[in-house]
Write a structure and sequence with these properties.
Layout: H1 9-14, H2 30-34, E1 40-44, H3 50-58, E2 63-68, H4 71-81, E3 89-93, H5 99-102, E4 107-113, H6 131-140, E5 141-151, H7 154-166, E6 170-175, H8 189-196, E7 202-208
The structure holds S-adenosylmethionine (SAM).
S-adenosylmethionine binds at residues 1, 44-47, 67-70, 73, 95-96, 113-116, 188-191.
Length: 209
């Protein structure tokens, strides 16, 4: 994600009240952090946060956590989220590779919105739907695992379908043109951008029991 340098990004992130600092300490007990037993939905690579804000406002009985590895991008998201005072939305600064150290069988749904496509074959392992990541997600999900992906990139989409299918997920919903379907949808920043350019958005929902 291209971004002009955010001034004081570290300060913004470190002073954020809804940033979960040292998230490992809540491993297995995020319900105590939210103070309820509502389901927890995660977005990995949350970018600037629009998708999560709209979801959290419209679904007060679901807890949302955004994970983002880039401090400058997370700082922008925090600036966007702050005015809404949402009790059901928190953020974590981390790489997806660390997720199994942070969560233990407590996530209901994982959103992957416009993840980096890593087009070269030699980088296929870095795609957030590669086997390496699916193995990590196994440890953070409750028994039933739900992955929802949106992407403009047909190659990433194809690779995700194959990888999820090979790993035992069943694709239960799919669209090659999400914005011309009747599905309820909240747009992310990337999605807004692609939508304005009339680029079709691919969508899938996959479940593993
Ligand atoms: C192309 S942007 C999409 C952002 C947002 N989801 C959207 O749709 O507007 C991908 C984001 O994922 C983040 N990201 C990529 N790999 C990641 C990883 N392994 N762990 C956490 N965040 C990651 C990047 O820093 C970037 O903010």
């Amino acid at each position: 994600m291209r971004l002009r340098n955010v001034k004081n990004a570290n300060e913004i992130v470190n002073n954020c009240e809804f940033l979960i600092k040292n998230p490992e300490r809540y491993k297995g007990k995020y319900n105590t952090l939210f103070n309820n037993n509502n389901p927890i939905y995660l977005e990995v690579g949350m970018g600037k946060g629009s998708f999560l804000i709209q979801n959290a406002i419209n679904n007060p009985n679901i807890n949302y956590i955004g994970v983002e590895k880039m401090t400058s991008i997370l700082a922008r998201a925090i600036q966007k989220i702050s005015p809404y005072n949402l009790n059901n939305l928190k953020v974590i600064r981390a790489d997806a590779l660390e997720l199994a150290n942070i969560f233990d069988q407590e996530i209901d749904t994982l959103f992957l919105n416009f993840s980096d496509p890593w087009p070269k074959n030699r980088h296929a392992n870095r795609r957030l739907t590669s086997k390496i990541f699916l193995q990590i997600y196994d440890k953070i999900f409750k028994k039933e695992k739900t992955v929802i992906q949106k992407t403009d990139n047909i190659h990433l989409f194809e690779s995700s379908i194959i990888s999820l299918n090979d790993y035992g997920y069943k694709i239960v919903d799919i669209s090659l043109d999400l914005h011309n379907s009747d599905k309820e949808n909240y747009m992310s920043e990337y999605e807004e951008k692609f939508s304005k350019m009339n680029i079709r958005i691919n969508y899938l929902k996959a479940i593993k029991k």
